[in-house]
User: Fold this.
Amino acid sequence: MIGIDPGLVETGFGVLESGPRGVSLLDAGVISTSRSAPLESRLHALHGAVHRLLERFAPDLLVVEDLYADYKFPRTAILMGHARGVICLAARERQVTILPLAPSEVKRAVTANGAASKSQVQRGVQRLLGLAVVPKPSHVADALGLAVTGLFRVKGRLPS
Amino acid sequence: MIGIDPGLVETGFGVLESGPRGVSLLDAGVISTSRSAPLESRLHALHGAVHRLLERFAPDLLVVEDLYADYKFPRTAILMGHARGVICLAARERQVTILPLAPSEVKRAVTANGAASKSQVQRGVQRLLGLAVVPKPSHVADALGLAVTGLFRVKGRLPS
Assistant:
């Protein structure tokens, strides 16, 4: 199960595995692209990095935030769309099924509050996964929140 | 020179060639994707179709509208971003340089009016390229307008 929080500047990702002894965190981090590079080079770098993650971990599902239109900055939303587009393309090319989840569903799953703040999501993810530290930056916590909620959907319960 | 007007439902394209006897229209049309297919399949189809166009015509430049944020419907803008993202990726993968142009520059080049209507752009493109009929739908006219304006930029004058 991989969760991805798309962004042109920073894309968060988190890879979880569910086994008989619970859920393990396999990898998590941020894919960054250079602000000084042309847009197409940044998309190419992001697309390649997602391909490598999907090749390495061969997840059964890729969880992303559902499309929503609640952006303060339309330009940022359009650029996020470019990033999300090449991520969805990589999933399709690797034949990984995409599970889109509403932000409110993720917040409810990890904090029991559909309108939780970023720091509440970070602490909820830390608690659910038994992490020694709060996952940072928030893109990573959001990606892990997506992956955890994806597991919840598939397994019918939160990881124990 | 290829002009592309990105859209998830319909992407317009127009391919022009500039030779000693003026400008020729090599191909123009619309890449459509099925509204009933998942987003990732639609992006995959669009990405593949753009790859095939770039392979077939090997253009030196791909002209697209510059990013702008003047959308009435944010969701449409984000979906356009997904489409534009995989188009830019295909250009990068085929090593075709992208030339982004402002809509006002295209309108000024084909109609002498930076705030021209869609039908004025269609008629301007028809006149500049000596087409027997008005290019339709407007996505095709917009793509041809981008390609013509790209030629203008590169050659320093409008096609005669």
Q: What stands out?
A: The helical segments of chain A are 39-57, 74-93, 103-111, 118-129, 138-155. The domain at 2-155 of chain A is CATH 3.30.420.10 (Nucleotidyltransferase; domain 5).
